[in-house]
Design goal:
Layout: H1 2-24, H2 42-54, H3 57-60, E1 74-77, E2 80-83, H4 100-109, H5 124-127, H6 132-143, H7 167-174, H8 188-198, H9 204-207, E3 225-227, E4 230-232, H10 247-256, E5 258-259, E6 263-264, H11 268-276, H12 282-295, H13 301-318, H14 327-336, H15 358-361, H16 366-374, H17 396-410, H18 419-426
Antiparallel strand pairs: 1-2, 3-4, 5-6
Helix pairs in contact: 2-6, 4-6, 8-12, 10-12, 14-17, 17-18
Bound molecules: heme C (HEC) (3 copies).
Length: 428
C-alpha cells in the first residue's frame, strides 16, 4: 500500500517535472548577419529613440557614457548582483546577430536569443505591452547604434537564484504576457498615458512595492516603494501631498524635473526625467499627466492652488519670531530658510516650499536625508539649478533635529522613528 502511494507520488512528481520542463524549455533562435542600418528609415529610428527614452534603456544598459548601450551596469538585488547586457549591434558581445523576432521575444517574453530565461530586473513584464510597430522601431534604433565590443561582468547571484530555468516558474506565477489593452471608458489621451506608464515607461517597476520573490505586489499597486535607496512615492490617491497631482503639476514635473506645489525630481527619478522623458514629445507627457492625475484622484487646478497656498500660510502663521527657537528651528532658519521661502500665492519651483515638499510628507525620510546630506546636483531636479549639501557642515544629530522639526511643523504626518540612526545609515 505504502509502496503504491510512494510510487504514485514519484510518478506524479516526474510528470510535473516533465510538464514544467516542457513549459520552461525555449528554443534558440538562429543568428542573422548583423542587420544593415540602412534598412531602416530615419523616421523609424527617430520613433525608436523616443521609445528607448521612455523605456530608459540607456540608463540601465550603460556604465561609461562614451559606450552607450554597452551594458555592465550593476543591479543589486536581494539575491545577489545582476549586470545589464550589451545591447549594441556588436555581433559577438551585443545583439548584432539577433533577428527582429529574437529581439521581440526578449522584450515581450523575457527569453534571450539562446533560449535562456531573462531576469525580470529587465522590465519585460512591462515591455510585453509593446505592439509590433513599437518593437520594430526600437529594433531599428538599437541596430543603428554604434557597435561596441564589451562583455558585462559575470552575475553573482546565489544558488538557486542563478538557475535561469527556475525563472520559468517565476513567470508562471507573476508574468502575464500580452499587449496593452485599451480601456474603452477612457479618452484616447488617457489610454496613451496609461500605455506609456504601464508599457515602455514601466513606472510601477519603481513606484509599486515588490514581494519576497521580487515581483510587483499587484495588491499594493502604486503605493510607493524604496528603490535604489530612494523612496519612489505613492502615485495613487494615498500620496500625502497637500496640493494633489493636477495635470498641470504632473506635466511640469515630468517635463522640467520639478513643479511648484511638490518639489523636484532627484535620485532615480532624475534619470527618468532627464535621460528618458526628455526625448518624448509634449503630447506624450501631457497624456502621462492626464493618466497620472486620474490615478492620483487630483483635485481641480483652482482647488490645488488654494490648498497649496493654505499649507504655506498655516506654517507661516505658526512661526512666532518672539519665541526661543529650538535646535531644529534654528538650524532651519540659518541653513535653509534663506533659499526655501515662498509667498503663499506664488510658490516657486526654484525654492521648493517645505510645506509642500513631497520629501517632507513622505512616509520615509530617505529622500529628505539624502538631499540634505548631498544637495541636488545641476543635473538633477530643475536642470541648471542646484542646492549645496550639508553633510560636512552638520552632524547626524543636528540633521536629525532639523528634519524632525520640519516634519512636526510643516506636515500633519506622524514623526519619523530613529532619525539620527537613519541619517547615519545614509552617509557614504
Ligand atoms: C531597470 C533596468 C533595465 C532597463 C530600464 C532596461 N533593461 Fe534591458 N536588461 C536589463 C538587465 C539587467 C538585463 C539582463 C537580464 C538577464 O541577464 O537575465 C537586460 C537584458 C536585455 C536584453 C536581453 C539581452 C541578452 O543578451 O539576452 C535586451 C534585448 C534588452 N535588455 C533590451 C532593453 C531595451 C530595448 C530597453 C528599453 C526599452 C531595456 N532593455 C531597458 C536591465 C534593463
Ligand atoms: C527607476 C525608478 C523610477 C521609475 C522607473 C519611475 N520613477 Fe517616479 N520616482 C522615483 C523616485 C525615486 C522618486 C522620488 C524623487 C524625489 O523625491 O525627488 C519618484 C518621484 C516621482 C513623482 C513625484 C512624486 C511625489 O510625490 O513627489 C512622480 C509624479 C513620478 N515619480 C512619476 C513617474 C512616472 C509617471 C514614471 C513613468 C514614466 C516614473 N515616475 C518612473 C523613481 C522612479
Ligand atoms: C543656496 C540655496 C539653498 C539652500 C541654502 C538650501 N536649499 Fe534646498 N534647494 C535649493 C534649490 C535651488 C533646490 C531645487 C534644486 C533643483 O531643482 O535642482 C532645493 C531643493 C530642496 C529639496 C527638494 C528635494 C525634492 O525631493 O523635492 C529639499 C527637500 C531641500 N532643498 C531641503 C533643504 C534643506 C533641509 C536645507 C537646509 C539644510 C536646504 N534645502 C538648503 C536651494 C537651497
Amino acid at each position: 500500500m505504502f509502496k503504491k502511494i510512494l510510487g504514485g507520488l514519484l510518478a506524479f512528481g516526474a510528470l510535473a517535472l516533465g510538464i514544467f520542463l516542457l513549459i520552461a524549455w525555449e528554443s534558440s533562435i538562429d543568428p542573422i548577419n548583423t542587420a544593415n542600418p540602412g534598412a531602416f528609415s530615419d523616421e523609424q529610428i527617430r520613433r525608436g529613440e523616443v521609445l528607448a527614452g521612455l523605456g530608459n534603456c540607456e540608463t540601465c544598459h550603460t556604465t561609461d557614457a562614451n559606450k552607450p548601450f554597452a551594458g555592465g551596469r550593476a543591479m543589486p538585488t536581494p539575491f545577489g548582483t545582476l549586470y545589464s547586457t550589451n545591447i549594441t549591434p556588436d555581433p559577438k558581445t551585443g545583439i548584432g546577430q539577433w533577428s527582429e523576432s529574437a529581439f521581440s521575444r526578449a522584450m515581450r517574453e523575457g527569453v534571450s536569443r539562446s533560449g535562456s530565461h531573462l531576469f525580470p530586473a529587465f522590465p519585460y513584464t512591462h515591455f510585453t505591452k509593446l505592439p509590433d510597430d513599437d518593437i520594430s522601431d526600437l529594433y531599428a534604433y538599437l541596430m543603428s547604434r554604434q557597435a561596441i565590443q564589451a562583455e558585462p561582468p559575470e552575475n553573482t547571484l546565489e544558488f538557486p537564484f542563478n538557475i535561469r530555468l527556475l525563472l520559468a516558474g517565476w513567470k508562471l506565477l507573476f508574468f502575464d504576457e500580452g499587449r496593452y489593452e485599451t480601456v474603452s471608458s477612457k479618452s484616447d489621451e488617457w489610454n496613451r498615458g496609461a500605455y506609456i506608464a504601464e508599457g515602455p515607461g514601466h513606472c510601477s517597476a519603481c513606484h509599486t512595492p515588490r514581494n519576497a520573490l521580487g515581483a510587483e505586489d499587484t495588491g499594493k499597486a502604486w503605493e510607493g516603494a524604496i528603490i535604489n535607496n530612494w523612496y519612489a512615492p505613492a502615485l495613487n490617491a494615498s500620496n500625502p501631498t497637500p496640493a494633489g497631482w493636477t495635470e498641470t503639476e504632473a506635466y511640469q514635473y515630468l517635463r522640467n524635473g520639478g513643479s511648484p506645489f511638490h518639489g523636484v525630481a532627484v535620485g532615480s527619478m532624475a534619470d527618468v526625467v532627464h535621460d528618458g522623458l526628455k526625448r518624448a514629445p509634449d503630447s506624450d507627457l501631457k497624456a502621462l499627466a492626464v493618466w497620472l492625475s486620474d490615478l492620483a484622484q487630483a483635485p481641480g487646478e483652482q482647488q490645488a492652488s488654494e490648498r497649496s497656498a493654505s499649507a504655506i500660510r498655516t506654517v507661516q502663521n505658526t512661526q512666532n519670531p518672539s519665541t526661543v527657537m529650538d535646535e531644529g528651528e534654528r538650524l532651519f532658519t540659518y541653513a535653509c530658510a534663506a533659499c526655501h521661502y515662498n509667498e503663499p500665492e506664488t510658490p516657486n519651483t526654484l525654492r521648493p516650499d517645505m510645506a509642500l515638499n513631497s520629501a517632507i510628507s513622505a512616509p520615509t525620510p530617505v529622500n529628505l536625508i539624502r538631499v540634505t546630506l548631498n544637495g541636488v546636483s545641476l543635473k538633477e531636479g530643475i536642470a541648471e539649478a542646484m542646492m549645496p549639501g550639508f553633510g560636512e557642515a552638520l552632524s547626524d544629530r543636528q540633521i536629525a533635529s532639523l528634519l524632525a522639526y520640519l516634519r512636526a511643523t510643516h506636515t500633519d504626518q506622524p514623526a519619523w522613528a530613529n532619525l539620527e540612526q537613519q541619517v547615519r545609515d545614509q552617509r557614504p
